[in-house]
Structures are given as C-alpha cells and as structure tokens.
Amino acid sequence: MGLTKLGNYIVQSDARNFDGIYGEDVVVGLSTQKQMIITKADLNGVNLVSYKLFPPHYFAYVPDTSRRGDKMSLAYNHTENVYLVSSISVVFHIPNESSLISDYLFMYFNRPEFDRYSRFHSWGSARETFSWEEMCDIELELPSIDIQKKYVNIYNAIVANQQNYERGLEDLKLTFETLIDRYKYVAHKKYIGELLEEIDCRNEDNSIDNVQGINIMKQFMPSVADTTDVNLQRYKIVRNGQFAYSGMQTGRDECIRIALYSGDCPIIISPAYSVLQVKTKDVLPEYIMMWFFRDESDRRGWFMSDASIRANLDLDRFFETEIPIPERKIQDSIVKIYNAYKMRHEINEKLKAQIIELCPILIKGSLQ
Q: How far is CA 354 from the centre of its chain?
C-alpha cells in the first residue's frame, strides 16, 4: 500500500462534560511519554463542564509542543473507563478499523520520529502548536490489517509483561508503607536534631566539579545554575550516605527538599544548602529518607514553614521535626524491602523505556 493521509481514518471528538456526570477523580493529564497521568492542575473550585470526554479506545493530545521538550503530549485510552481531559486537548478516534488499528497507530505515535515531525510542523509565535489539520495531513504507509495485528500482538504481549511486573512493584510498595504506618504509632519518636547533624566540608582544593542540586522529587540532579566563572571552592561536598537539605520555599512547593546521596564519588552543592549526616548508630540514613518520602512529612513541613514570602523551613525548625524510630533490626527489614522496591522500580522504568524504543523497530518491521 502506498502513502495515505492519516485524516482519512481519524475523526475528532468534541464531546463535553456538559451534564456534569464526571468529577475531578477522572481528570487525567497527558504526558510526553504517551501516557495518561494524574493531572497536575489545581482543580479546587474548577468547573469541569467544559472538559472533554476521553472515552475508551480514543486518543487525546495537547497541541502545544513548544514548551514540552520538543515532544508531543499524547495518550491512548486502553482502558474501559471514560476520563476527562482539558478543553485545550484534542480528542479523536478511529471509527472504522478495517484499514488502520488503533493500537498500531499508537505504536506509530510512540516513535521519536513522530515527536520530531510534530515539532517541526508546529506553528505559532509565543506558543507553537501542532494543529488538528497538521495531524490529519500526516502521510503514512499502512501494511495489511493482518500484518498490523501481528505486530500489535507482539507489542501488547511485551506491554502485558511489563504491567505484570509493575503490579508486583506496587505490592512491595504497599508492604513497606504498611510497616512504616504500623510503627508510626508504637515506636518512640525522636527529633531530627537528635538524629542528624550539619557538617560543612568545602571544595577548597577545587578537585570536584560535579555540581548537583535537589528537586521536589527528593532526587539529586545536575545543577541548572550557570556556574561559569563561579568559584567552586565555596561549594559544599556531599559524600555517600549524607543528605543535602534546602529549607527554601518549602511552603510554596509543599515539599521538604531533602535527598540522600548514594553515589560512590563525592559531589558538590550550592553553599546555600545544608549537608547533614547521621550522628547515631541507632538509625539508618535510608530509613530517615524513607520517612521524608511520605506525603505527611511534606504536609508537616509546609505547616511548619515561616510566614516569609518564600515560606522557608529553616534548619533549626526542620530539626524540630519528629519521626518514629523502631529498633535497628526492624529498620533493617523495612529498608531491605524498600531497596528491593527501588531496584525493581528502576528495572520497570528501563522496561518502559525499552518498549518505547521497540515501537520504531516494530513499525519498520511491519513495512518490510
């Protein structure tokens, strides 16, 4: 089969939540990883009447491409549930799959080539968008339905294996969270100031140039600051098993910005940050970090923040935070489960990345 226009097979949908049947619990966002995600929008007091229905086996995408890392935010609803997406999203489906299967089209969309195409064909001034007309104008080559089904079956089998692995991952997460909850009520509580101490080791010999920051996900990340011509001798050194802490904007972000470093080679962080380390053998640093991954810790940090414009949580106030400390052997058990979860989580993320990498190979194979 020769080249054909995608617009010959897809139909746009503009069905809205006019009767208000669907609430904020079914509102989803669309990620550049081509997945439905929990929306980041604050829906408090938002009227959902104008939100678009996103039914099963439909596609939805956000036309704006200029502010999304040169990628298209798009998802396919594989479920049997109806969701809501923002009114700025474009929703469409394939009404007749006699020539093009929805799953095959989703594989097509999952290729980096599609992201490059959509970005190149986006138009606008302050905000560039990939319009519905441009989507319909895509030229693609379609193999026979039987060939499409064959490669879709391969893709779906791989996805099913990954999803089974992910379900086991959630069981592990539930296990260590349940354990922490149990000991929250029975273990003796200690102040963070009793467990951690601040240290101040500077990069005086300028031997380290790996400058890192910490994000609201409580992870280290390459610093976004311009360090050109900056004197790195003032920067603080962080070693394995030590924490980096920033009390700035805790209330604004509703997040305690803290991260535990697990790398082998030391890094350096801004002198505005604090470097902390465990000062007692009664507690594991991994256990402390697990506690600060919990939403309730972030809520307490927000509550304890000062009334300044930045809503900071200064170090002395942070040291007044209490956490339950069970016996060391119990901590060991919880941390082992957590480490198993973390390792499997990393494997799961690699599996998902490999699935995306397979899409161009499967599409190419179907055409040969």
A: 17
Which residues contact residue 112 at a Cβ distance below 8 angstroms, ignoring those fewer than 6 apart? 360
Contact 189, 216 (CB under 8 A): no
What's the token pair of residue 208? 């380290």
Give the model confidence (pLDDT) of 73-106 as tens digits.
999 999 999 999 999 999 999 999 999 999 999 9
Distances (CA, A) of 76 to 239, 271, 315: 43, 45, 45
Residue type, 93: H
Q: Is 45 exposed, middle or buried (0-12, 13-18, 19+ CB in 10 A)?
A: exposed
How many other CB atoms are found less than 10 A from the CB of residue 348? 16
CA distance 357 to 263: 28
Q: Which of 173, 157, 218, 156 minimizes the C-alpha distance to 344?
A: 173
Structure tokens at 152: 């879709």
Pairwise CA distance, residues 328 & 334, whole Å = 10
Name, in order, each residue with C-beta under 8 angstroms of 198's C-beta and a sequence gap of 6 or more: 274, 275, 276, 315
3 state SS for 119-139: HHCCECCCCCECCHHHHHCCE
Q: Tell me: pLDDT of 67 over 80.
A: no
Alpha-carbon dihedral sign for residues 138, 139, 140, 144: positive
What are φ and ψ of residue 228, in 5° steps? -60, 130
- Token code pair at residue 243: 């924490």
1: pLDDT strictly greater than 60: no
Cα(141)–Cα(289) distance, integer angstroms: 51
Please state, in angstroms and as integers, the Cα–Cα distance from residue 368 to each residue in 18, 185, 199, 362, 365, following that order: 47, 62, 62, 10, 5
